């Protein structure tokens, strides 16, 4: 495999393509780990190096504490390697964040993705530093923490100054960041400031995968990887050249297709139609399933992107 710009990214725990995995739900809206595990196994077999479970796309903040544990335990019980999963454990409160992080460590996960405490807006960097200090001290190591920078959703961004302060105070504990800001300049600033010390920067946007790899980032953790991971795997393996460029074009087109309708129900619709499994349309309020017209539109957009049928989902499997 071609080397990253910074060779130390070869040691990234989740280097490459990571899907922000949809959480399968039963008709009563409870988690369905068996159906989710089937999808997770397909992702790992078709371009994904790892799995970001229980994040934004996985509707983690619509699930209760015990349900989040049930999902992770269920995936492990159904054969999904814990080491391949980076569960989201960040909540609006300290004790649940610590409990979920310790639970992920006990399951064998190597890293967790942690939102800032997002209910109270405009906290100071001092306040955020105090919060993450408590998380780190109460979890006691043994699992890597990745910061989840998604200010459009959390309204609480991570500043470069705060990241630098955390890295200096807790060397080796804060391993990287998922940047879902959509601001490539911000991602590049994180790479320039911290990647030389092995800090892993993951894009939350598919269109930046090829670029971020070239500039020393570790890869991506993205929602559209639920359906485009095959092409992400090509970009990660090839990096440059006609095949990588063509695959990156599919990533960019599928990202735009995915965001042409409400993102989470749109991805559920793509997986439901691709697998023939109606259960993928089940979603927790306040999210709602797509209308038939929206479903037809997003399906047509994925077709236009050249991504359908999804590689590895044969007609026999779709009918199963």
From TrEMBL:
Report whether Translocase shows up as a keyword of the record. Answer: no
The entry marks the following residues as binding pyruvate, namely: 57, 221
Q: Which family does it belong to?
A: Belongs to the DapA family.
**Which Gene Ontology molecular-function terms are recorded?**
4-hydroxy-tetrahydrodipicolinate synthase activity
Query: Which keywords accompany this UniProt record?
Result: Lyase
Q: Which residues form the signal peptide?
A: none
Name its species. Roseicella frigidaeris
What is this protein identified as?
Answer: Dihydrodipicolinate synthase family protein
Where's the active site on this chain? 148 (proton donor/acceptor), 178 (schiff-base intermediate with substrate)
Organism lineage reads as: Bacteria, Pseudomonadati, Pseudomonadota, Alphaproteobacteria, Acetobacterales
Q: Which PANTHER family match?
A: BLR3884 PROTEIN, DIHYDRODIPICOLINATE SYNTHASE
Listed Pfam families: DHDPS
Q: Metal-binding as a keyword?
A: no
